[in-house]
């Protein structure tokens, strides 16, 4: 637009002078006939940058997203409204358009497992920061970063994935951030009520209900959800409940206040893990018929945005979260064996408080400066009881207490970024973040089989992080990007004081640090086409590994460094975008994305470990699919294909006979079909099939066994809406 103005200015001045001169001559010589003056033609060309920006925002985040600068950081956005409804939190389907995110599946719906680029194992997503509306979903973001609660996908509008510089935007974890964005009522929405009800295989029943309105200064949205499943094995049934409330008040066009409340409750059986031999013989075998898991999570968020004028703006959030994780676990039993004589009831509670305040200043021609702070505190008691009652209730503490720990975490950070816009459409983004972490464990009861003293341990760390991004817009809707950023994994409670080990105090592990490099190009150069391809390199130092120091004791130690490098590409194309069908609202969207990974140990304290492949680092992860959609129909076919991968860092087999575990998880491909059909304004039909080919596979394995993935399952249902 600037080039257009510069080109047009001389032309406008010339035209004004000629016009003035012509009128003067007419006044002086009124009888003289007017003569036409032929001026040389001037061609003015302007690039319609808004068109390309709108096209790119279908697949990536805005360059300056409120108080967050994402330009030069590789981002991916999945708009869930552009695909059929995801039922039962099928995360492979929900994240099919999100390159590189590996989902390790388990039937138990109280644990969610993500992995990325070979950094850490995917157990409860401990190495990936998962957030909802920019607020961590983990139990304790710092001391116990496990993911035991996940919103129903029907309540989400989009999924954002930010690589590399995510640690500079949000905080700890070396891998990327996955941020779920909640649905909000669009401006002008009248009072609307909707209900969605689905049934399916394995006793599936899913219900999701919404009431919302957004008119005038007030807006609200309330939803409730319920999912029941019998599972595919005995003691595999589950019930999930969810409730959300969003209330917003906009006193004027410059500010808004809002309140968010999220409640989640889940209970499920745990049928146990299987050896490879047991899985081959019968994947429905149950090894822990008495085990059970309960999770409750409540979160309250108060938010405020304010445009102060003079190009200053504010976004602030204050939140409180209470999460309670209770499990009943007895030893696994082989078929024909007598039941165990006792079980352990474990209760981990998390009371966490946090605030996130960010300011943005727009200055110059397209430049932006952001500064902010995050403060966080967690109080997380950890208790266990032993009881002979194998079906003890979750709140029955009448057994013998065998563990009692008070745990606390503190975190504080300040950060700043600036995007500089330079000539020739070059942009530079320097970033800095200063972080402080303190965790503490105080024990009053230790497990009776240990001889160590009671734990009274704390550890404090300070961490400066730096990042730099470079980019350049070129051609029609294309952009190059380069980013180098530091990240780190905070020490957990288990890292400074393993509760089930005789390890003495003062053996806290060193911080695990990462440096991520990424360079690529993306764009939407023609109507309907989007591409993004990049190469990456991640150095991960002081990797934490679990080591046995005797027959029963383990210790978390820094035993090596790893290097992950590879290529990640994404291609999306709408075959109808350049045809007359597009004017009729028809789309035929196809996509393919691939992550190629070469991960290796480059140093290790374990002999023979250098050169081996870290656990859960498949050489490729391929996702592809096609969606036909219009105002009435959404029909989607998606596939996820993973290469074989090791499940432990040693790359070796484990056990023999009934305890045998192969060294690698075999490669697998899973295909899903989903559809929505809007019959009329009020009625919508839903149907789908997951694992269409009934592939028998697993991708979540530990030393004590395999967790089988679901076979082919179907669902069907309807949705009604009124306004």
TrEMBL record:
InterPro entries: Beta-barrel_TonB, Beta-barrel_TonB_sf, Plug_dom, Plug_dom_sf, TonB-dep_rcpt-like. Residues 88-172 form the TonB-dependent receptor plug domain. Gene3D superfamilies: TonB-dependent receptor, beta-barrel domain, TonB-dependent receptor, plug domain. It is a multi-pass membrane protein. It is found in: Cell outer membrane. Pfam families: Plug, TonB_dep_Rec_b-barrel. PROSITE patterns: TONB_DEPENDENT_REC_3. The keyword Transmembrane applies. Keywords: Cell outer membrane, Membrane, Receptor, Signal, TonB box, Transmembrane, Transmembrane beta strand, Transport. Residues 1-24 form the signal peptide. Residues 263-692 form the TonB-dependent receptor-like beta-barrel domain. PANTHER family: HEMOGLOBIN AND HEMOGLOBIN-HAPTOGLOBIN-BINDING PROTEIN 1-RELATED, TONB-DEPENDENT OUTER MEMBRANE RECEPTOR. Belongs to the TonB-dependent receptor family. Hemoglobin/haptoglobin binding protein subfamily. This is TonB-dependent receptor.
